[in-house]
Amino acid sequence: MRQLAPPIGYHSRVGYFPLESMSFESVKALVEDDLRQVDAVIRNRLASDVVLVNQIAEYIVGSGGKRLRPLLVVVVARACGYRGAQHSEAAAIIEFIHTATLLHDDVVDGSKLRRGRDTANEVWGNEASVLVGDYVYSRSFEMMVSLESMRIMAVMASATNKIAEGEVLQLLNANDPDTTEERYFEVIYRKTAKLFEAGAQIAALLAGASPAVEAAMAAYGRHLGTAFQLVDDVLDYQSNSAELGKNLGDDLAEGKPTLPLIYALRTGTEEQRVLIRRSIEEGSIDRLADITAAIESTGGLAYTARLARREAALAIEAIAVLPDSAYKQALRELADFAVERTH
């Protein structure tokens, strides 16, 4: 018989605590033991007889980051009443797929900085980065098999296919100032939100959740991932390089028409539209300060942030099906964090 989740406000390590004061760090503390196990799985599963594979994989996984995706998996599993250990493997699978996409993305985009450090392709070259990305990606599928669930395999096979399609769609949108808001959202769903959605869904599947709860958790992940990406696109024009861990204006330099730009193109003056169109077409950040000013004056950042808050609210609405627990409150906090973060 599956144990129920602890009562709301209770944590085995610290007892009861006021949920309204819960922070992102509190969420991580709530599942501290789970996250430690996820790290152990990651280190163990990355091991290879090929030294260069170990070096690059360790470099990218050990370079920091929020680990939001594996955190999402373990919290959703616990919120759904799961008391086993396979959620650590599932969380590592999600992190491996994310890592593989980072390695490939940085090559495609020609990125030189990620999380405040040189990208793997900058250190070891494009060839090694792509091949190790393939290794990490294929290792994730080996790990999926160990879960012995065709439903989980089906969810993850579909998700990875959608992510690949998202990469191609983004490539098609590059340097195209006529990219619509609809096309933009299709890209961020496939490239970013789909992995969040899949992570939350397989966590529910591991917990043996009902179809209704499984669908709700998938919706939670989808809306959380969308909110997270929208905020990322705001921060590309509003943060600073030290906080963001990458160079400001990187998206524009790659010719990516993100939502703040799309909105400014739709609502700006003729002069602003000409400037933004030319910059997207050329992938130029020579006038980044002017473009940032145009985005701000047209309300592009506020508009994008408003849609991010709407997505976070939809994520919180989706978890209403769950029984009250500290883990359910943690899911609310993750939604708040997605839109309140500054890096």
Automatic annotation (TrEMBL):
Alphabetically ordered keywords of this record: Magnesium, Metal-binding, Transferase
SUPFAM superfamilies in alphabetical order: Terpenoid synthases
Pfam family, one: polyprenyl_synt
CDD domains, per the entry: Trans_IPPS_HT
Catalytic activity from the UniProt record: 5 isopentenyl diphosphate + (2E,6E)-farnesyl diphosphate = all-trans-octaprenyl diphosphate + 5 diphosphate
Cofactors that this protein relies on: Mg(2+)
Enzyme Commission no: 2.5.1.90
Membrane spanning stretches: none
Gene Ontology biological process terms in this record: isoprenoid biosynthetic process
Molecular functions per Gene Ontology: all-trans-octaprenyl-diphosphate synthase activity; metal ion binding
Function: Supplies octaprenyl diphosphate, the precursor for the side chain of the isoprenoid quinones ubiquinone and menaquinone.
NCBIfam families: PRK10888.1
Family: Belongs to the FPP/GGPP synthase family.
Protein name as it appears in the record: Octaprenyl diphosphate synthase
Organism of origin: Steroidobacter agaridevorans
Gene: ispB
